[in-house]
Amino acid sequence: MSDASGAGRGPSSGRRARIACAIELPPDFRVEDILAFHRRDTQMLAERVEAATLHKGLAWQGLPACLTIRFAARRAEAELAIDGAAGADATGALRRMVAHMLGLTQPVEVFEQAYHAHPQLGPLIARHPGLRVPQSATPFEALSWAVTGQQISIKAALSLRRKFIQAAGLQHSGGLWCYPDAERVAALSDAALRAAGFSQGKTQTLIALSGRIAQGELPLDDWRAALPVDDMRERLLAIRGIGPWTVSYALLRGFAWLDGSLHGDVAVRRNLQALLGADEKLGEDATRQWLAPFSPWRALVAAHLWRLGA
Predict the structure, then answer these.
(1) Cα of 178 vs its chain's centroid, Å
(2) Cβ burial, residue 101 (10 Å; 0-12/13-18/19+)
(3) Distance of alpha carbon 280 from alpha carbon 282, whole angstroms
């Protein structure tokens, strides 16, 4: 495992690239939702939020990079500083990544128009108009985070995430550690992940997942373009340690698929109980049945339930 002294950083000299783009934002865009999503780790190892600016370390074509997004009125200005060459179509790729991260590909206006008068959902929509689901920078980040967070608290998951990022050993020259790509994780040993605090089961799942992605068996970029959900679900569920909740959460956070039924999510069940005024806790079956009529928006409904009480 690389330590924080600088091992694993990008080159201290040599070629560095900077690319930039600007994206117009809709009138109801919720900047704070994006900043809050990336502010979860108070130790700011790989993400740093300052006022209306996000800095995020990530792997860009295997190289350490720092993404900066500055929010102004109706506008997001993005810059990517890469410890190396940018590669082909870098500006277009940056624009697509940022639009995805900000949830701008999600047709939330259609959902809100359809359900603004619903007796339960209508008040939630009115409280949080324009609610989008903030996205991970890459599908692999969403998948690996979903595996990391299985059956542990958010505090424990964030601690494990930090150790995972450091175990991968990719640090930008500006100081932020970078969330790794699948190829880098596939090169890690079981011992490195176990030393970072992963259970044997999660270690094996992450190694199998990253290995299949690195070998092209799970074409995440192609999937994000076409979204063949049934095929995606089948192939992911074939990996030991990945279950329906992990798939639905990863499809939501990594692919902006808004129809995953997150009936197994504890917060969704708890907040739905409060919304319905039910005296007894709602089980997974009851929550699944309540969400079912809202297809193809079930995951977006879950996102509104997450915000209940916020």
Answers:
(1) 14
(2) buried
(3) 6
Going by the DSSP 8-state scheme, the letter that residue 175 receives in this structure is: S
| Cβ atoms 137, 67 nearer than 8 A | yes
Residue labelled with tokens 């969330």: 179
Q: How far apart are the first and last CA of the chain?
A: 38
CATH topology of domain 17-105: TATA-Binding Protein (3.30.310)
| pLDDT surpassing 90 at residue 13 | no
Q: Is the pLDDT of residue 11 over 80?
A: no
Band (pLDDT 50/70/90 cuts) for residue 14 is low
- Closest by CA to 205, choosing from 172, 169, 259, 246, is 246
Q: CA-CA distance, 251 to 265, in Å (whole number)?
A: 14
Query: Which structure tokens are listed for 93?
Result: 């790729």
**Strand 53-60's sheet: what is its strand order?**
17-24, 75-82, 63-72, 53-60, 47-50
